[in-house]
């Protein structure tokens, strides 16, 4: 071979090696590729609630210990973001609609909720992120905010899922939700994932997973988002003022949480990390901190003590497999992020991060959501493709 060709060959190899070292190796690490088997932590006293399948986003009502779920079934969930055409087909062949339910661990009772005021999930392809917020002036009343991916319109469908955010009101202990408003703003509510509502029933923040509704571009959008430039966003809507984007340029957003004091936490799926935001002018969110995590993250929740619980994927590829194959046993883990109260906080260590619970894929399958009931010492977990809900006494 002429030496210029050899040089060129070496150059290409070196470039590939550099690309691997800088971009690919760190991601494979986050995806748990180099880790051994997942060891169980905190799983001593757990049980399954088999009646609740493929539930997404569990929300704890702290006063009663009741957990609210947005649920479905494996048929409805399989490949929910594959293509608008798939979504239309799935909906035509389903035998059950997506639904909301409550579970009370003290009585072990599952209750399916109904809707009034003309709302149904008949044109829903998937229910997704949800928030349940007590009305600040009347704690017997709850606001429910729900991400509703509606079946795409058109034949053939052109524009991806027709996603909106719904607002409902209900009484604590009642089994029916009164529909109040559909927020339909495709320019801002693009590919919504999680939603966090305000206690006055007037506004909410939500995450957009990617920047486009067109799922044909989704895998590309993810990787562009992780390696080149984040294009996911956080949006804000107000019942009188409409919607806007509150933070942009973010990589593969997932869970969002706040205790309502102006500090917000955002999870990133494909490159991990919890981003911390403060509310700025005009409801914008300003990035103030990024806390790297060992694994990619999913949904977030905050317990009564202010600790953030972040569902994590110790084996990302096992989870991706489970998205289409419910028999795949993806392991689960949860990170707990708490304010550092130790002496070292004066040296800039603002947070402590640990893994209080993880499981090898027997008791919990690919958990995407955790809620911690600090009063009753319970941890509740489920996943978008999990065939049951898992409840653990800690
Ligand atoms: C509480 O609920 C009532 C009735 O729905 C509503 O008029 C009021 O604005 C709510 N207040 C707050 C602060 O959420
Ligand atoms: C909100 O509360 C968290 C702890 O729960 C704290 O770390 C944060 O600094 C608080 N934010 C503001 C703006 O006070
Ligand atoms: C997971 O852990 C349980 C309990 O320790 C054990 O019985 C089971 O064999 C483990 N499964 C795998 C796949 O490692
Ligand atoms: C509400 C929310 O953030 N849901 C996410 C939880 O996990 C699944 C699995 O990755 C995501 O698809 C959801 O978007």
UniProtKB/TrEMBL annotation:
Coiled coil: none annotated. The chain crosses the membrane at residues 6-24. Keywords: Membrane, Transmembrane, Transmembrane helix. This is Serum paraoxonase/arylesterase. InterPro entries: 6-blade_b-propeller_TolB-like, Serum_paraoxonase/arylesterase. The keyword Methyltransferase does not apply.
